[in-house]
Amino acid sequence: MLAMAYLLSATKLKSYAQCPRAYYFRYEYGLKQPSMFGAAVLGKALHGALAQLYQDWHYQEPLPSEGWLRYCWEHQISALTAAQVEAGWQILWRYFETEIVPLGVMQRPLATEGRIQGLTQVNGLEFKLTGRYDRLDSLDDGLELIDYKSAKNPRVPEADTVDLQLGLYSLALEQRYGKLLRRLSLLFLRTGERVTYGVTDEHRRQVEAVIGDLALRLLDEEDWQPRCGEQCGQCAYARYCSAVEAEPEPLPEVRQKIRRLQLCLGI
Fold first, then answer.
1. Which SUPFAM superfamilies does this entry report, sorted A to Z (predicted)?
2. How do strand 125-139 and strand 6-9 relate by DSSP bridges?
């Protein structure tokens, strides 16, 4: 059988950096993580409307009209309640008035609702870097990634989570576009708040170091040591962990996927 590159996302990197043993339980052994929330229907509709707003506009005039914004919204509301339709429209209109109108012209993004993919080789293993973005804008000196946040009670991500995301996305986007990721902006659609992070070489070095450590553990399957902390109290796998329980439960039998690691041999 042919070996494949090991799939790696910012979410997986965060999980590994937080606790290698929890990472093993979820991604290597195959234990499922309980789902905590249902699908955010309104959020999905807002993301779809904003994607259409940018994707399908003809850009022959400086700004789209209110009619165009309504047209994009009405194509996304079939699964919403009347209250959600009204609330979503108010959110879209606020976005239009604060993010687009003040610029005097709606800039065409480089891409919308796309996938991030790249490859990196660390410690003899090949990793496929993956992720998603809502919008990607061109800057004079590189790229800006826009991430829409539509939750009712938005939270700014923890610094270590953002740092890993910035490093991974920077590596992958440079391979795809030949440009450096300069910043990541989180747009909180319900409040209109924008939080921006600059991207540095240190972010790339940090993510490369975490990937390198993960590679060593993948090659030495016995060394998935726990990293204890506050996260243990909320860990979905605590009952299986000897660092938390004096007598941990035996791991349930799961149908494990056959892992094929892509070894990169220098010649």
1. Restriction endonuclease-like
2. parallel
DSSP string, 227-242: --SGGGGG-TTGGG-T
Q: Which mean pLDDT values do the consecutive 10-residue runs of the chain (267 residues) have?
A: 71 89 89 59 94 97 97 94 94 96 96 91 86 94 95 79 90 93 95 93 92 86 82 86 88 64 41
Which pair of structure tokens corresponds to residue 222?
Answer: 């016995």
User: Quick one: tokens of 86?
Assistant: 């009204």
- Distance, CA of 102 to CA of 219 (rounded, Å): 53
CA–CA dist 47, 39 (Å, integer): 13
CA torsion sign for 18, 24, 28, 30 is: negative
End-to-end CA gap in the chain: 22
Q: Which residue has the tokens 């035996």?
A: 250
pTM tops 0.90 = no
What is the per-residue pLDDT for 30? 86
Cα gap 265→167, rounded to integer Å: 25
Tell me the one-letter amino acid at 144: E
User: How far apart are the C-alpha atoms of 224 and 67, rounded to whole Å?
Assistant: 56
